[in-house]
Amino acid sequence: MNKLVFAAAICTVGLGACSQLREPTDQQLTSLLRVDAVTAGGSALLDSEAIDCLRALSGDKDLLKGLSAHIAGETGMKSCRTRLEGMVAEATRNPAKLRLADFSAPKIVRRAMALQVSRMNARVEQPPAPVAAIPPPDAAPDPIPVSAPTAPVSNVDMGSSSATLKNAEDLCGQAKEAAAQADATSDLKNFAASCAANIGMIRTYMQRAANNNDSERLGNLTSSVENIIKAGHEAMGQ
């Protein structure tokens, strides 16, 4: 009996530490992190700063990599908590009344990051809007010579980041094979479906950063790849 009373006291003092976290769906994550009412649908980007705040509050050392000082510092953490608590309290954003702790769990934060990358991919892949046809003039002017476009950089030296990318690409292949098995989980199937596209897009960004000698940007992108790798291992139960 004394042990039961002691355990109950720990849970009470711990302010709910013994209660089980609820796992938000992708739709609930999108609803919380939308920039406005339109963001919830289509390919509009989510609130990047709110996602960074979730990373800061996750307590995961890998998710903290690459965060700016104004978010990862003590003052930034307080501001992040205040802002996110306000978002969680909004009934339109969080009708299921999930807690901030539910959204800031490392596994959920990585899913939010993956959702953002998927939306970035969707925006890039959208075809351009059709342009109305313009009737030709009676006498067309001589064509203006146009220089051939510069070929995109494809073999930029990215140092150790290249090895990280290679590991991620190998993991995408492993996840695709594992997702084809009958006992594959929904988390694994979702990860495998978007892994290659996400890594391919990040590779393009990393090549640009390396070509521009932007080491800070390259480091942040490498951290994103490392988080995707960790999420993949979790999805595969490794």
Summary?
With 238 residues, the protein is mainly α.
How would you describe this protein?
With 238 residues, the protein is mostly helical. The protein folds into two domains: 22-124, no CATH class; 160-235. The protein is globular. It is built from eleven helices and no strands. It starts with a helix and ends with a helix. 61% of the residues lie in helices and 0% in strands. The model is unreliable at 1-18 and 149-154 (pLDDT under 50).
> What's the total count of β strands?
0
Q: Tell me, rounded to a whole number, the average pLDDT.
A: 78
Which percent bin holds the helix content?
55-70%
Overall tally of structural domains: 2
Please tell me what the overall shape is.
Answer: globular
Number of helices: 11
- Whole-angstrom Rg: 23 Å
Order of helices and strands: HHHHHHHHHHH
Largest sheet: none
Unreliable segments (pLDDT under 50, ≥5 consecutive)?
Answer: 1-18, 149-154
Q: What structural class should be given to the helix and strand makeup? A: mainly alpha
Cα-to-Cα separation, first versus last residue: 39 Å
Strand percent estimate: under 5%
